[in-house]
């Protein structure tokens, strides 16, 4: 059946965001929506006009309403305090987080190269929020990365201006530029493109690298007493050099593992040796639960072997976060000795 021309415009969905200066939040919200078939060819309109906002199919980051049933996703209204999960209590969502909350599972199933089961979708939904969307939400809501531990207004040791939010913001006209509204809109769509690219990279890594590693880390944790005897369950031996940090913390929490794991032993095939890596205090720190002894740090080969009383030692990093040995058993011996010498 032919659709009359006057009705064709009615069935093209529209996504409205605010006009003026744009941010990563609104650009990410648009990028996420446009991954979905129903919005892949939507008209994107940047405006402050109340009539255009009311007539839009989806509204993000403007309008003063959050109501999924009406496809309205603003976060600026008084009383809005939505967070993505109980683990994100200190990060209020912005429009990017709201869109990801409601459409994330559908987006992932649309983009996945092979079907994802419900458990995988749930894990990935949270993982992508933590790795990408949370930072966008926090930036838009003016939440400092370390505001939970530093006094208000504390000066950071160094600044980062290459993050996604900064790169999108840099596309706005500077104070000496004169741009037409159409030119600013075109720059906004460049920002949408940056968000799309960053999301695809994050999602691809999560699906192809992070998710398959979970089974390997889970099995290693289950078998840690068998694979690393006489270590009290505090040494993890991996069968493959898979990304372990995030999964280790998650599984420790899920299974209430105590005492906590201190070292991860894995083969360093290119160097023909085995590495023992310290588990950090938490996911995003250089501080470790049990660094290797200070007396070993920065030493190599025969000098290190003599100091540690373990033949075959290769290296201990100057910061104490990693040790290397010619054999797997030797690497575990270094962990055992380090635990004995720990204060």
Descriptive tags:
elongated; 343 residues; five-stranded mixed beta sheet; alpha/beta; disordered N terminus
Backbone shape: elongated
> Widest sheet: strand order?
2-1-3-5-4
- Note the gap between the termini: 80 Å
Number of strands: 10
Count of DSSP helices?
A: 11
Low-confidence stretches: 1-9
In helices, the fraction of residues equals: 40-55%
Helix/strand order, N-terminal first: HEHEHEEEHHHHHEHEEHEEH
Strand content: 5-15%
Mean pLDDT: 94
- Structural class based on helices, strands and sheet pairing: alpha/beta
Polypeptide structure, described:
This protein has 343 residues and is α/β, with parallel strands linked by helices. It has 11 helices and 10 strands. A 5-stranded mixed beta sheet has the order 2-1-3-5-4. The chain has a 5-stranded mixed beta sheet with strand order 6-7-8-10-9. Strand 7 (263-268) and strand 8 form a beta hairpin. Helix 5 packs across helix 7. The longest helix is centred in the middle third of the chain and has 42 residues, at 181-222. It is elongated, with a radius of gyration of 25 Å. The termini are far apart. Mean pLDDT is 94; it is low at 1-9.
């Amino acid at each position: 059946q032919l659709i009359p021309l006057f009705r064709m415009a009615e069935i093209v969905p529209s996504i409205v965001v605010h006009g003026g200066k744009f941010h990563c939040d609104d650009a990410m919200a648009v990028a996420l929506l446009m991954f979905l078939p129903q919005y892949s060819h939507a008209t994107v309109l940047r405006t402050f006009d109340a009539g255009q906002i009311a007539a839009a199919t989806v509204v993000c980051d403007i309008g003063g309403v959050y109501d999924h049933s009406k496809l309205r996703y603003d976060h600026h209204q008084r009383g809005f305090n939505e967070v993505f999960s109980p683990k994100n209590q200190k990060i209020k969502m912005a429009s990017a987080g709201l869109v990801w909350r409601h459409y994330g599972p559908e987006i992932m199933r649309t983009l996945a190269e092979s079907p994802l089961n419900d458990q995988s979708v749930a894990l990935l939904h949270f993982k992508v929020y933590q790795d990408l969307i949370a930072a966008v939400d926090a930036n838009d809501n003016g939440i400092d990365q370390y505001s939970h531990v530093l006094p208000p207004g504390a000066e950071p040791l160094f600044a980062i201006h290459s993050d996604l939010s900064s790169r999108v913001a840099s596309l706005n006209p500077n104070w000496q530029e004169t741009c037409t509204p159409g030119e600013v809109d075109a720059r906004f769509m460049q920002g949408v493109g940056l968000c799309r690219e960053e999301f695809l990279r994050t999602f691809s890594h999560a699906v192809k690298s992070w998710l398959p590693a979970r089974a390997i880390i889970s099995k290693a944790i289950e078998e840690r007493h068998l694979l690393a005897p006489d270590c009290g369950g505090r040494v993890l031996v991996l069968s493959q050099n898979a990304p372990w940090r995030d999964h280790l913390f998650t599984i420790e929490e899920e299974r209430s593992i105590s005492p906590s794991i201190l070292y991860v032993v894995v083969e360093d095939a290119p160097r023909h040796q085995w590495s023992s890596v310290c588990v950090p205090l938490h996911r995003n720190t250089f501080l470790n639960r049990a660094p290797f002894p200070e007396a070993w740090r920065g030493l190599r080969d025969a000098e290190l072997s003599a100091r540690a009383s373990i033949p075959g030692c290769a290296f201990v990093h100057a910061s104490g976060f990693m040790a290397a040995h010619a054999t797997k058993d030797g690497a575990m011996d270094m962990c055992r000795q380090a635990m004995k010498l720990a204060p």
